[in-house]
Here is the input.
Amino acid sequence: MSDISPSPANGTGPRGLRQLGMAAGALALVVVAAGTWSRLHQADEARDWGQAQAIPSVHVITPRPTGTTDELVQPGTIEAWAAARLFARVPGYVRAWYADIGARVGKGAPLGAIDTPELDQEIIQARAALARVKAEAMLARSTAARWNDLLTSHSVSQQEADEKNANAATHVAAVREAEANLGRFLAMKSYATVRAPFAGIVTLRNADIGDLVGPGAASQTPMFAMADDHTLRVYVSVPQQFAPLIHKGLGARLTVPAWPGRSFAAQVVDQSGAINSQTGAVQVQLQTANPDGALKPGGFAQVHFDLPVPSGRVLLPSSALILRSGGTKVATVDAGGHVHVQPVTIAHDQGNVVEISAGLAPDARVIDSPPDSLQDGAAVQVEKPHG
Here is the structure.
């Protein structure tokens, strides 16, 4: 037998096979290790992504500082400086009217006239009664004078003279009574002409010729109504937190729907000095001149007050407020990305914006539109500003 040995050139000996197997095994180990490392890396990425997704993202804003003055706008009611409804004081029938609605009249100007036939007869009767008692009083005085003369000669007794003097005094009193009665009827007759109690504008006329007016009429309605619109009163309810800032002489501006873009100067006259328990506001009275009659009594106005603002107050959108038990709160974010829920005090609610007077630093980072699930101490991600 002859020995057969592999040629070194073909590399197929046992030693080459071992090396080839070791290389294949190493390659397999590398592949397995790479796959394992890739799966572990993907798991870490998935875990990190899940944790990142679990942290909510929030949008933060910075409170805006308030100015030195704050405009308080409240609805108000315009009223005439003086207003009156004029009723018929005497019974009768309307004979004429001299002023219609919208007419401007002076003080004492006649507005209407009333025929008073019953009162006229009472005046005639009172004049006759006065004439009678005057005649009786004249007779009583002359009789008393004669009796006093007779008393000096002792022709009559003192008792008889005293009786005549007393009778004369009684008739003098009766004359005064009759004069007062006639004066009362004449005073009533003066009301037959309805006159303007002050200079102003006629705002109502219910009187028509022939109407029965005054006591005894089927219904008591005013014949006329008047308003003095040269100067107007404006009544406005101011929330009680602003009451200490409202004082006599404080200026204000009025705006009305009828005159867009135009404002009217007004001034505080006084305030009620008491808080209305139903509205929580104090009633304030202002006055404004109305030389051109642009403002109408009974109208509506927006009253603008420029009030001084205490230092330290800031403005926030109302969307940043958290309304939970325990009062109004806001959520802020610290430098470490953690939430702090803190109570605040609202000084003035302007609708979309609120004025915070306490509980919030001017440089605080406030979460806008905080989610309901947000809790104190929670970690959040602050969204980067767009642009």
